[in-house]
Write a sequence for this structure.
């Protein structure tokens, strides 16, 4: 973009904050947990819900990679903000972290984000995870046992017991909550991969109202098929993929009011009246103004920035995180939305 365009880039700013690794825990041969100190002045910005993730810049290769990792810690239970990384075969960032991460290192980190969270902690939960997918499930489990009142069933799948992340912790939790928690563990080395039919049999007769599924793509589709649709039950999925771009870099925009469209944004009980330039996304405009808007990937993938357009028109380059029905209902991804017709109104 150049200075003659309808709005000009003022400067590039780095988003997020530098966090220090206070502890490293080797969970299995190929999995490591990194526990970050969050300084008091960042406590609000880094407050989180069980099941959310952070995005960190991994200094591997020539330019580094931005990668998201679910929090395995739970708010109000664990002091340190903790992520758990399993080496992906041939993976560029995970391999680097598992081999090189050490106490005292600092990483650029974007604040917690994500919608793989429990909205009603009185409901019965069914948590189904394979491999590193156990990370957000472990956080949700700890939080549910401490603050919720429903029953929780956890189904995990790993290659062998030696690969089972949080095996000891899950047994301890089961012993501490015999009336509320049931843990079912399966191992692909001895039991084979769990199919939809096997998962249906395993979960038959279990009372649940909210299911949370996380693991490799094929495992998640098998679990999705196994849990038959029912209007009284909700199924939540968390897909682990690698980011393509650099969500840390923000090109701040200065608005030229001749082309910008008036927009009203409702967020966290506040109303922001903004001028929205046609070539800028709503997340970038709000971040440039210092508004704490929910976001993470800024590439239409994670769904953190989902909001509702109640007036005006927008276009979106990518809608991966939305279902067809969401779009019909007026939901948008604020990190992808550029204005087409105003005035606009967006509710977060
Ligand atoms: C919301 C969210 C939460 C997540 N939480 C966790 C978590 O808690 N723990 C965790 O371990 N991971 C988690 N992930 C996944 C994580 O972000 C990374 O995707 C993962 O660590 C792999 O990154 P990588 O750089 O090591 O692998 P990449 O280098 O990105 O490669 C990923 C895979 O693709 C293959 N590959 C790479 N390049 C190519 C190519 N050109 N052609 C074919 N194959 C290729 C690699 O061999 C590897 O198996 C999460 C992801 C998301 C989006
Ligand atoms: S920030 Fe990830 S979808 Fe918008």
């Amino acid at each position: 973009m150049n200075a003659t365009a309808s709005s000009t880039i003022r400067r590039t700013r780095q988003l997020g904050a530098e966090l220090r690794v206070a502890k490293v825990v080797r969970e299995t041969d190929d999995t490591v947990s990194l526990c970050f100190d969050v300084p008091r002045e960042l406590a609000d910005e880094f407050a989180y819900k069980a099941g959310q993730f952070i995005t960190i810049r991994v200094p591997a290769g020539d330019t580094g990679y931005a990668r998201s990792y679910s929090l395995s810690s739970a708010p109000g239970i664990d002091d340190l903000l903790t992520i758990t990384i399993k080496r992906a075969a041939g993976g560029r960032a995970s391999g680097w972290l598992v081999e090189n991460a050490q106490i005292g290192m600092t990483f650029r980190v974007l604040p917690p984000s994500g919608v793989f969270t429990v909205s009603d902690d009185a409901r019965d939960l069914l948590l189904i995870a394979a491999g590193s997918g156990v990370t957000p499930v472990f956080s949700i489990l700890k939080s549910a046992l401490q603050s919720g009142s429903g029953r929780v069933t956890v189904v995990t799948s790993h290659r062998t017991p030696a690969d089972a992340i949080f095996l000891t912790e899950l047994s301890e939790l089961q012993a501490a909550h015999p009336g509320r928690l049931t843990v079912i563990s399966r191992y692909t080395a001895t039991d084979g991969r769990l199919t939809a039919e096997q998962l249906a049999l395993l979960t038959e007769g279990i009372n649940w109202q909210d299911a949370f599924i996380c693991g490799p793509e094929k495992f998640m589709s098998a679990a999705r098929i196994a849990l038959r649709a029912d209007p009284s039950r909700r199924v939540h999925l968390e897909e682990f993929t690698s980011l393509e771009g650099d969500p840390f870099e923000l090109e701040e925009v200065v608005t030229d009011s001749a082309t910008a469209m008036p927009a009203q944004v409702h967020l966290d009980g506040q109303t922001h009246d903004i001028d929205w330039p046609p070539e800028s996304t709503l997340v970038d405009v709000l971040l440039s103004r210092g508004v704490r808007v929910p976001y993470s990937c800024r590439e239409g993938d994670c769904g953190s920035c989902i909001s509702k357009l109640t007036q005006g028109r927008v276009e979106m380059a990518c809608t991966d995180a939305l279902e067809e029905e969401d779009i019909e209902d007026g939901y948008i991804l604020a990190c992808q939305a550029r204005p087409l017709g105003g005035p606009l109104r967006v509710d977060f």
User: Anything to note?
Assistant: Residues 134-147 form the longest helix (14 residues). Residues 1-5 have pLDDT under 50 and may be disordered. Residues 53, 65, 67-70, 84-86, 88-95, 114, 132, 135, 238, 240-242, 302 surround flavin-adenine dinucleotide (ligand 1) (CB under 6 Å). The radius of gyration is 21 Å.
